[in-house]
Amino acid sequence: MDRSVAYSHRGPRRRRSVLGRLALLGSLPLLGASPLGAAPQPPPFPPASDFRSLQLITLACGRENSAEPCEKARTLANPLLDHPRLPASCKDVLWTIRQQAVVAASNSFERREAIDRAARSLTAVCRQQLPVTKPAGDGQPGAQGGLKLIRPSQN
Asked: pTM score, two decimals?
């Protein structure tokens, strides 16, 4: 018997046993994974009250220029920066608050205006966008009581 044939015969058998083990492992559910393989749901969108309280604290930081409201504004903005459901425009405003809400030597107009601008835009930019639903209808113009067009008769 030729040795090269013997080695070539053993090679695929080993591969099949290893492949069989891998297939068996692939059919077992992983620890912590759901049996249906569904992706985990993202956390819920933060409530508007969170953004409103952050807005008021940030305005107080700009007005008072003291450590307590500025530190609290940065502390509240920080975890929201990592929230997966917030849009990039909202995270830009949160980042501005995080960077600008610091105690300064003088409470200049430029400092207050930068902080106040970010605080004012917070509730508008960080609003949850709800999906737009189309009204039910047959797609014909005038079906919903809107514009009624005169159609020429076909002879």
From this structure: 0.61
